[in-house]
């Protein structure tokens, strides 16, 4: 045999592996192995692919086969488990294997130039200096800080503390460093997780501030200790919902495990960093891998525990390309490896809650806040019909904020709408700031003097007078965070006000700087969107005001209530996280609403997720909605809506339907037009996941055969329909 055949996955929409020849060399050169990366010619380009199999046979005639150019021997092959994970995701979401496996790799590993790779490998090879110099430096800085603020416990921490030479800027304060004694509920949860034999999915159901983080960390510590006596160092993967939560997490993890290498994986890393961190995970060096959803596809040879914090969070669902759920893949991966997976939340997704009811997931429960004497905030409703807001704020809320200001405590005002005003209008003629390219309004951004569409790149100067009638008195309608910030400045001229939203944090590092300012107590009133609602452990924050949550109550999206409840519980959970001062005011959450009697708010007032979830699940059973049925959504885009609808209609009738599968009528999407493209959707449902999958598997090749000249995509388990 002179040649062997490499079956290679490439990042291509063609749903197949590609065969290449590889010339066998003398015996000193080992044969290529599955999981290795190879450089191959593809069309006129040279690209990097993953060798999936090595064979002596190809169905293609020999003269049609091209030669693979090189095999990356520097990097150890990706494991079979990893390839199986990618294959599962490819099958389940109905995408080619290469489109799953390749884009998940760091860019510097996917290029045919190896300079960056060589540099990263050299870094990894340097003895003692374990892969991540930047992180190590940060660890030292934190160790030093820990020595100042808290008694140093372990020898490793002491060492880290004395190692410090130069004072380094602290990215984020360290809240704890010494290991606290677990309370009974935490102890039980940690013991269950650490003693798990084989695959077990846990739902860690714990109110905000109940110390879920502590459970993850101590469970990890025990798993590290067990693995230490058995074999290679264990790896733990921790997924968090937002990039801007990673600094706080990193600080906490480093303070707890100063002697371990920690890798970060999220889209905010520079490519060089991304590669180094990815390799540290791939080599098994990084024992803790902390990341956002994309980290679920990391190569982790010794993975022993997966944690998905805030498992209900919609950000775990990728919304373009491969539309995967990182949470669902986490459960699959744990199952594949026979290890525990912990899904943590104060407001679990109804999917996970239903799995607890049916016994598939084990519930671990933390009912109380972990810090002694820190209690859940009191939730109160402000009836906006009686107490009419001015500048977005009712007089009761203004009074409450003033009280906190006087006590030197922080307030958080939550409004999930950025910009100054969501729309601008002319009262004289009825002109309204529609986007010319989308079925959406142009949002007023007063600071930039722009009207801006949040769905396409369209923006324009704020018109001086009405484009249709010339009226010079155009009015902003409604309010976003910028406008509230403006009112707050007028109401509280002496207060230090900080707005945190996607606009105020556009510059790299600015979000962290803003959060740090809050942590350092340099902010009195924080106004923000969902960016501030999640996960942050604000110590001095005692009041949360929710300005305008009602719109979600009557949304046609059946998940809107679930999302609103989770969001409000989350944001409420930012208040009262440390013990109340003896003479202090109890922490509070004020919700401005026109429907103070709404059952969703009643459940919120009682901090009663379970009641809320039970009612929701009953509704879903009756309405035949997930999690009791399974869905897929086909989307089509065209210049004309009719073209998109016709394609979906043709798709619908292209194959006979099995009895368990339902195809609905094609309809325009809720937001029909974006950037001059009209969008339509076709919903596919079944009471059986297996039947749905079998149907999709048979149907998609039929559609690809038709070779539609239209952009279409399929999403399994869609979130927004
Ligand atoms: P969650 O993730 O459940 O919202 P956190 O893990 O952020 O809660 O914990 C909230 C606070 O409680 C943190 O400041 C943490 O240091 C503290 N904490 C956690 N466990 C304990 C414990 N056993 N004793 C004292 N404080 C604790
Ligand atoms: Zn007008
Ligand atoms: Zn637009």
Count of distinct structural domains: 4
* Mean pLDDT over the residues: 89
- Helical percent range? 25-40%
CATH architecture of the largest domain: 3-Layer(aba) Sandwich
How many helices?
20
Major beta sheet, specifics? 7 strands, parallel
| The CATH H-level homologous superfamily of the largest domain | P-loop containing nucleotide triphosphate hydrolases
Looking at the chains present, what oligomeric state does this protein adopt?
single chain
Shape: globular
Q: How are the strands ordered across the major sheet?
A: 9-10-8-11-12-7-13
CATH topology of the largest domain: Rossmann fold
Uncertain runs are: 127-176
- Taking all Cα atoms into account, the compactness measure Rg is 27 Å
CATH class of the largest domain: Alpha Beta
Q: What is the strand content?
A: 15-25%
Structural class: alpha/beta
Total E-strand runs: 29
Binding site for Zn(2+) 2: 435, 438, 453, 456
Domain Helicase ATP-binding: 193-366
Subunit structure: Component of the replication restart primosome.
GO biological process, one term: double-strand break repair
Provide an overview of this structure.
It is a single chain. The protein is an alpha/beta fold and 721 residues long. The chain folds into four domains: 3-103, PriA, 3(prime) DNA-binding domain (GIY-YIG endonuclease, 3-Layer(aba) Sandwich); 144-153 and 161-366, P-loop containing nucleotide triphosphate hydrolases (Rossmann fold); 378-420 and 479-618, P-loop containing nucleotide triphosphate hydrolases (Rossmann fold, 3-Layer(aba) Sandwich), CATH 3.40.50.300; 630-716, TATA-Binding Protein, CATH 3.30.310. The protein is 32% helix and 22% strand. The protein is built from 20 helices and 29 strands. A seven-stranded parallel β-sheet has the order 9-10-8-11-12-7-13, sandwiched between helices. It has a six-stranded mixed β-sheet with strand order 5-2-1-4-3-6. It has a six-stranded parallel β-sheet with strand order 14-24-23-15-22-21, sandwiched between helices. A hairpin with a 2-residue loop joins strand 3 and strand 4 (45-55). Helix 5 crosses helix 6 (155-162) and helix 7 (184-194) packs parallel to helix 8. The longest helix has 19 residues, at 212-230. One zinc ion binds next to loops. Belongs to the helicase family. PriA subfamily. It catalyses: Couples ATP hydrolysis with the unwinding of duplex DNA by translocating in the 3'-5' direction; ATP + H2O = ADP + phosphate + H(+). Component of the replication restart primosome. Pfam families: DEAD, Helicase_C, PriA_3primeBD, PriA_C, Zn_ribbon_PriA. GO terms for molecular function: 3'-5' DNA helicase activity; ATP binding; ATP hydrolysis activity; DNA binding; zinc ion binding.
């Amino acid at each position: 045999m002179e040649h062997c055949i490499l079956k290679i996955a490439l990042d291509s929409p063609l749903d197949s592996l590609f065969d290449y020849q590889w010339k066998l060399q003398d015996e000193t050169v080992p044969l290529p192995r599955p999981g290795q990366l190879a450089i191959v010619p593809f069309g006129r380009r040279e690209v990097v692919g993953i060798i999936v199999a090595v064979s002596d046979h190809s169905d293609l005639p020999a003269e049609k086969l091209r030669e693979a150019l090189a095999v990356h021997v520097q990097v150890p092959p990706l494991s079979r488990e990893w390839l199986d994970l990618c294959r599962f995701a490819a099958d389940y979401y109905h995408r080619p294997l290469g489109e799953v496996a390749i884009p998940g790799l760091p860019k510097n590993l996917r290029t045919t130039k190896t300079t960056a790779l060589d540099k990263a490998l050299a870094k990894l090879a340097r003895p003692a200096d374990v892969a991540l110099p930047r992180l190590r430096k940060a660890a030292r800085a934190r160790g030093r800080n820990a020595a100042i603020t808290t008694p140093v416990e372990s020898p490793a921490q002491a060492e880290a503390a004395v190692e410090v030479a130069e004072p380094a800027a602290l990215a984020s304060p360290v809240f704890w460093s010494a290991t606290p004694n677990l309370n009974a509920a935490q102890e039980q949860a940690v013991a269950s997780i650490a003693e798990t034999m084989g695959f077990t999915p846990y739902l860690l159901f714990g109110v905000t501030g109940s110390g879920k983080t502590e459970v993850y960390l101590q469970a990890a510590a025990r798993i590290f200790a067990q693995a230490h006596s058995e074999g290679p160092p264990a790896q733990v993967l921790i997924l968090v919902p937002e990039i801007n939560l990673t600094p706080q997490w990193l600080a906490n993890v480093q303070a707890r495990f100063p002697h371990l290498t920690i890798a970060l994986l999220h889209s905010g890393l520079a490519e060089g960093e991304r590669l180094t961190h990815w390799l540290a995970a791939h080599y098994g060096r990084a024992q803790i891998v902390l990341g956002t959803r994309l980290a679920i596809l990391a190569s982790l040879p010794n993975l022993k525990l997966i944690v998905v914090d805030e498992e209900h969070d919609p950000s775990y669902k990728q919304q373009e390309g491969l539309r995967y759920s990182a949470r669902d893949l986490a459960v699959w991966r744990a199952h594949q490896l026979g290890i525990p997976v912990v899904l943590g939340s104060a407001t679990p997704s109804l999917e996970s809650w239903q799995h607890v009811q049916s016994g598939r997931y084990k519930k671990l429960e933390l009912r109380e806040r972990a810090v002694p004497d820190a209690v859940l905030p009191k939730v109160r409703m402000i009836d906006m019909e009686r107490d009419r807001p001015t500048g977005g704020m009712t007089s009761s809320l203004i009074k409450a904020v003033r009280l906190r200001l006087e006590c030197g405590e922080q307030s958080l005002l939550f409004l999930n709408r950025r910009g100054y005003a969501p729309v601008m209008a002319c009262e004289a003629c009825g002109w309204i700031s529609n986007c010319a390219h989308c079925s959406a309004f142009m949002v007023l951004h007063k600071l930039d003097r722009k009207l801006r569409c949040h769905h396409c790149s369209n923006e324009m100067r704020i018109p001086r007078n009405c484009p249709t009638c010339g009226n010079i008195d155009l009015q902003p309608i409604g309010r976003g965070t910028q406008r509230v910030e403006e009112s707050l400045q007028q109401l509280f001229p002496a207060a230090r006000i900080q707005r945190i939203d996607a606009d105020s944090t556009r510059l790299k590092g600015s979000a962290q700087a803003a959060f740090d300012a809050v942590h350092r107590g340099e902010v009195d009133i924080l106004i923000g969107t969902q960016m501030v609602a999640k996960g942050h452990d604000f110590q001095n924050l005692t009041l949360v005001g929710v300005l305008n949550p009602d719109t979600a109550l009557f949304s046609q999206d059946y998940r809107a209530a679930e999302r609103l409840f989770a969001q409000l519980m989350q944001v409420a959970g930012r208040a009262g996280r440390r013990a109340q001062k003896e003479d202090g005011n109890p922490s509070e959450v004020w919700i401005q609403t026109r429907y103070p009697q709404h059952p969703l708010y009643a459940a919120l007032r009682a901090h009663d997720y379970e009641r809320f979830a039970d009612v929701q699940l009953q509704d879903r059973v009756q309405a035949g909605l997930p999690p009791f049925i399974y869905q897929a959504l086909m989307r089509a885009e065209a210049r004309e809506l009719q073209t998109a609808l016709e394609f979906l209609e043709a798709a619908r009738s292209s194959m006979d339907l099995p009895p368990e599968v339902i195809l609905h009528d094609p309809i325009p999407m809720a937001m029909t037009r974006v950037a001059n493209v009209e969008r339509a959707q076709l919903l596919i449902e079944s009471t059986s996941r297996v039947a749905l999958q079998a149907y999709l598997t048979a149907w998609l090749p039929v559609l690809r055969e038709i070779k539609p000249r239209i952009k279409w995509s399929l999403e399994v388990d869609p979130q927004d329909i």
